[in-house]
Amino acid sequence: METYFIETWGCQMNVLDTQRLEGLLQQHGLRPAGRAEDADVALLNTCSVREKAVQKVLSRLGELHGARQAGGKPATVGLCGCVAEQEGARLLARSPVLSFVLGPGRVAQLPAALDAVAAGRRVSITGFEPARDYDAHLIARGNSARQYVTAIEGCNQHCTFCVVPYTRGHESSRPLREIVREVEAVAAGGGKEITLLGQTVNAYRCPATGADFGDLLQAVGKVAAAWRIQFVTSHPKFFTDRMIDKIAGTPRVGSYLHLPFQAGSNAVLKRMHRGYTREEYVRLVGQIRAAMPGVTLSTDVIVGFPGETEADFLETLEVVSAVRFGQLYGFIYSARPRTPALGYPGRVARSEAGERLERLFEAQSPVQLELNQALIGRSVEILVDGPARRGSEAWQGRGPDNRVVNVQGWPGVAHGQIADVTITGATAHSLLGELRPGGPGA
Asked: Considering the entire predicted model, what is its pTM?
């Protein structure tokens, strides 16, 4: 085995898991290939949040099987991520090309899986151990100025629609000092924007000291080499007045907060087991905005949850109208194995759920446009990510509020550069800007 390739689907935690897998493969002596069909080892790092996840995985495995039958590569195929944890050894029986299955709680056992394959065995390594191995120094971070650091793994909330507690296990917070050391190392290595990750990141509790998420942010915010600290994803029920004050009082924390509300109907929220009412959510938004006047809120919304009526959906639209989110991610309910909602009555027809999703986006789009247009004329620092699109002379970056800003290219522009720009235009989904003379990056 000489080369590897990893295909990554899903959330930021999967992206970071891929970096962990890459680090282990490189330690094993492998180097990256350009695509799975050219690699000795191909890993599929999967997501199971949506209903068709397994079908998508099986389709890709079929393609790799065809490539191998045609006399090509990959010789070793591993399935990682949440689908691996969800399906386990069943996938070994369903796909002859598959060499091993490795759950997200067992990333550190990748070398053991490769050794088993070398010995002629097909293995499934899933489940969760009380003490999870986390070798931060082995993460293959590349040269991106945006980096992720795990604060808390797993989830204890058991929302009735969500498969995460079954695919990523129970909550397990890392020690605060360990996280701070990793952030220091990442920032020293060129990471400018560092995002703390967790399925319910603000449920964090240091296992050594009992420090909460506000304490963690305050400690991480003192890392001088970091330009900006972000975090995802927050759960509304874990915010406290003290935590909000600590977030607001930490200058390096970005002005972006992802705060899913999922549904605007109290009846639906109760069936979802979200742990708050719409009134409590809206009140929390008011508290956050009072403490952080410039905050940009984004959210997740599920439509078509079992039993959702037209009246329930209208209450969701009311919350969207009242809160005025800077970004909104909407989804049609997707039935997931092992989740309580799988057996709920009152399934909403796909066509009706799709129509509601369109109405949700129609309600949100003018709000986003208006909020973005209000920024025209303002100055903002952005972290440059790269060309806006292939072949374009414009470059794209994001400010501390996570909004996309497209800027005309200039001599010496580079990935990871911090630039001072003036906002000159806006659409519902992005901003236009010009480099400010004499500012950073000019």
From this structure: 0.94
